[in-house]
Amino acid sequence: MRRDLTLAYRHRGEIANPLVFFLIVITMVPLSITPEPAVLATLAPGLIWVVALLSTLLSLDSLFRSDFDDGSLEQLLISPQPLYLMVFAKVLAHWLVTGLPLTLMAPLLGVLLSLPEAGYWPLCLSLLLGTGSLSLIGAVGAALTVALRKGGLLLSLIIMPLYTPVLIFGAGAVRNAIDGFLVGPQLAILGAMLALAIIMGPLAAAGALRIGVNG
C-alpha cells in the first residue's frame, strides 16, 4: 500500500483527474439546467452520487494496469504473500487517493447544488461507505480486463450493473434525510454491502488476476 501511495503521489495529475471531473460536472449543472435552488436541491442527492460513481470508474482502469505493463503484477502472483491481502492493499490505496477525496469534496459541491442542511451528514456517510464498495467491486472488473489493451469500455459494462444497488441506497439515504425520514436502514445496507465487498471483492479480484494474466 505504501508503494502504491508513493507512486500515486509522484503522479499527482492522475489523482486529480477524477476530482477535477467531479468538480467540473457539478459546476456545469446549474449552468446547463437551471440555477433555481429548489430544482437543484431536488437533483443534488442523485446527481452527486452519479458523478461520484463515474469519477471512481474513471480511475479504475489504471488500478492494475501499470503493474501489468512493467511486469510486477506477475511477481505479485508468484509471491509467497497472500494475494488477497496484496489486492486489498492496492484497493485501499486506490480508495485513499480517489474515494476519500471525493467524499471530502462532497459538502462543497452540495453547497453549489443548494443541498439542504439535513442532507450533508448522510451524504458524507453514504459516500464514505459507498465509495469503498465502488473501489472493491471495480477491482474485480479491473482485474478481468487488465490484459486487454482497451478494456475501459468492457470494464464499464461489467461493473455498472453491480454499482446500481450502491447508487440506489446511497442517493436514497440523502433523499430520506432531506425529506425527514430515517436514514439508518439505507446506511446499514451500505455498510453490509461494504462488509461483503471487503470479504468477496479481493478474493474475486485475485482469481480474476490469475485468469487474466496467466490466461
TrEMBL record:
It is found in: Cell inner membrane. It comes from the Bacteria. It is a multi-pass membrane protein. InterPro entries: Cyt_c_biogenesis_CcmB, Cyt_c_CcmB_bac. The chain crosses the membrane at residues 15-33, 39-63, 83-108, 120-146, 153-174, 186-209. GO terms for molecular function: heme transmembrane transporter activity. The keyword Ribonucleoprotein does not apply. Keywords: Cell inner membrane, Cell membrane, Cytochrome c-type biogenesis, Membrane, Transmembrane, Transmembrane helix, Transport. One of its GO terms (cellular component) is plasma membrane. Its main location: membrane. GO terms for biological process: cytochrome c biosynthetic process; cytochrome complex assembly. Required for the export of heme to the periplasm for the biogenesis of c-type cytochromes. Belongs to the CcmB/CycW/HelB family. This is Heme exporter protein B. It comes from Exilibacterium tricleocarpae. The gene is ccmB.
